[in-house]
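Researcher: We're teaching a course module on how sequence relates to structure. For the next exercise, students receive a sequence and then see the predicted structure as tokens, so they can try to spot secondary structure elements on their own. Here is the exercise chain.
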Amino acid sequence: MAQQRESMEYDVVVVGGGPAGLATAIRLRQLAAERGGDLTVCVLEKGSEIGAHILSGAVLDPRALVELLPDWQAQGAPLNTAVSADEVQFLTGPRKAIRVPGPLVPPPMHNAGNYIVSLGNVCRWLAQQAEALGVEIYPGFAAAEVLYDERGAVRGVATGDMGVGADGQPKAGYAPGMELLAKYTVFAEGCRGNLGKQLLARFDLARGRDPQHYGLGVKELWEVTPQQHRPGLVLHGFGWPLAAGTGGGFFLYHLEERQVAVGLIVDLNYANPYLSPFEELQRLKHHPVLSCHLDGGRRLAYGARALTKGGLNSLPKMTMPGALLVGCDAGTLNFAKIKGSHTAMKSGMLAAQTIADALAGEGAGGRDLEEFAAHFRASWVYDELYRSRNFGPAMHKLGLYGGSAFNYVDQAAFRGRLPFTLHDTVPDHQRLRRADQCAPIDYPKPDGVLSFDRLSSVFISNTNHEEDQPCHLTLGDATVPIATNLRLYAAPEQRYCPAGVYEIVEESGGPRLQINAQNCVHCKTCDIKDPTQNINWVTPEGGGGPNYPNM
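Model: And here is the predicted structure for the students to work with:
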């Protein structure tokens, strides 16, 4: 007989220990202290520790942090490198580039007053502040199931069972998941959250909105030579090696201690099934604009993560009975600024304010806090997203040159307040074309100096999963990968996955798809880009996945 799950009750359960979730928890406890009351708050984090699964560029706009913790500097927040130089390059070929003059760079991309950070370390610091305020944080526990009451309202979550074998049977040391019950539950899982995806469908939260759009960010952390280190330099760029019609851009940031973050974001609405975002980054690093920073250095870490970039047009209703969606679980990233941490934090702070007010007035919980929408609309985060609402659709509809020109006029001349709104109503996975309509891409072999292969990259992401557990990359129909994806699209999952999870193996009985789930870095790209939407990413056993030290 299966063991019965134990339960714990809180006023608020927060799912996800990223910027949005931690800001929510901190603000809830602050409000409770200000009002002389008490709110019990816990944060669940599927990574082995806070920050283990956090990956971002990252240039941080400190606006929300200043509001949340005004004394952040005195408290030792790891914002150690202020932006000192801002540069944008248009790569016109494998060795050529044009530097974009500052006045022609749209205002949202200017970075004066911002900081280059390890977002993982910022989250670790935020977790310390939260615990000092009385928040209970449980890393290594994946929220695997949404719990509902008899009215259909969200009642909390259940963590995944531990010690289940790949055959679905309990192993020695099996422990059932735990139910965490709450008056309100805040989902802050990040981009394409597993439970958030279920809630969007169950409560029809995206009705009337544009479909969400996504990018894949592939990032490396390097240690460079003292001569090449320029602390505070922010370099962004676009163009080569991405082919015409493929959106995206690169970043290179100089942090403290001779560390440089370099990465490429590829819009996941690309058409050519032969494209590999991982390989595009590897050849990008050989361009002189980037290699001059990296030559003689050594690679320290690697990771990848999808990001939500649909902006205001794709933002769903963020409330439902008993719960709220915040941060990238909803899609609050401002892609025009290439930043989402400050907007994620502010959305969590607004959620905390709404919940605290509701519990002060009614106490019981479980309501649809629809007043959150008015608070959100009255905030600076809404204004910022509104001003950037046309950025993505312009790039998608008008291409690199037309979109860039439109966005410059929109942002520089009209400050994002043109009297109309552009829309992109085609989901990213539907943009993929058949393989026979596209040219294969011949990627150069890695040299082991500037460019590397997938497996050595995954190795330095410190990714680990217990191998004897149910596969967390599930297929709706096991015949589709060969009958459809391989036949029509040349098995694109082999290339869009940045971790080598998907592999077509030739056997005597024909080809089959092999899923190397232990390699998964939890980027969620397969869940997003699979042309048949046959792959569903679900939470593996808690504590699995990458272990990023300071990404």
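Model: If you want an answer key for the exercise: The domain at 7-70+120-211+313-387 is CATH 3.50.50.60 (FAD/NAD(P)-binding domain). The CA atoms of residues 216 and 306 lie 4 Å apart.
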